[in-house]
Amino acid sequence: MKVQIVSDKQAGGQAGFRVFEDALQNGAKVLGLATGSTPVTIYEQLAASDLDFSQLTSVNLDEYVGLNADHPQSYHYFMQEHLFNAKPFAHSYVPDGADLDAAKATSEYDQIIAENPIDLQLLGLGKNGHIGFNEPGTDPDSTTHKVMLTDSTIDANARFFDNADEVPRYAYSMGIGSILKAKQILIVAYGEAKAAAVAAMIQGPVTPDVPASYLQTHPNVTVILDEAAASQL
Ligand code: GLP
């Protein structure tokens, strides 16, 4: 894993932007995108750039089950606001959280990923080491699946809702196996609250207890951290 330590989120946005720019120059056609607060500064840089995404495809990691695409806390909406309004792609895919038929929604999404192999996958990191919504204990070979969110994840995401009761209890997420198929992976983490998960991801054993630790088995991973997130390395 290539680890790059930056001074703050703004510098992280610039460093992340350069990884995207290089991937595009090297012919990337399918970008795997993520939500959460961490990618926001990268999206700001991408949105303000002269990069052209109009011939590219994006595939997002996850979506809450039960939220329509126009719900302000849905990941569809997030992507629209933070990137797609400024930079439309030829095709943008996000799991369909409005489809309550989990078998259908997840197999359709696996088909989309199979038809659009991901060149560069962007990831944030959960405080408990999750990637996408792959919580501790997830099978490393998993494909897209329905996930029951842990209390830790519900609490962490409650800040985006009026209260914790409104946070959906389930999500559809690409699996760890789907993520590891990406040709290149960029994972970003900021802040002291992520420091233990960062150390476990990079220096700990490869274990289902820390889903991000499986990234150690991938040949092309870049990690961007601020000093607080890197403080336990
Ligand atoms: C959510 C998302 C993850 C994200 C994580 C961390 O659980 N499903 O993809 O990485 O939150 O979010 P943040 O970047 O806001 O810390």
From TrEMBL:
The active site is at D62, N128, H130, E135. Its EC number is 3.5.99.6. SUPFAM superfamilies: NagB/RpiA/CoA transferase-like. It catalyses: alpha-D-glucosamine 6-phosphate + H2O = beta-D-fructose 6-phosphate + NH4(+). The keyword Cell inner membrane does not apply. Pathway: Amino-sugar metabolism; N-acetylneuraminate degradation; D-fructose 6-phosphate from N-acetylneuraminate: step 5/5. Keywords: Carbohydrate metabolism, Hydrolase. InterPro entries: Glc/Gal-6P_isomerase (IPR006148), Glucosamine6P_isomerase (IPR004547), Glucosamine6P_isomerase_CS (IPR018321), NagB/RpiA_transferase-like (IPR037171). Residues 21-218 form the Glucosamine/galactosamine-6-phosphate isomerase domain. Catalyzes the reversible isomerization-deamination of glucosamine 6-phosphate (GlcN6P) to form fructose 6-phosphate (Fru6P) and ammonium ion. HAMAP family: GlcN6P_deamin. Belongs to the glucosamine/galactosamine-6-phosphate isomerase family. NagB subfamily. This is Glucosamine-6-phosphate deaminase. The gene is nagB.
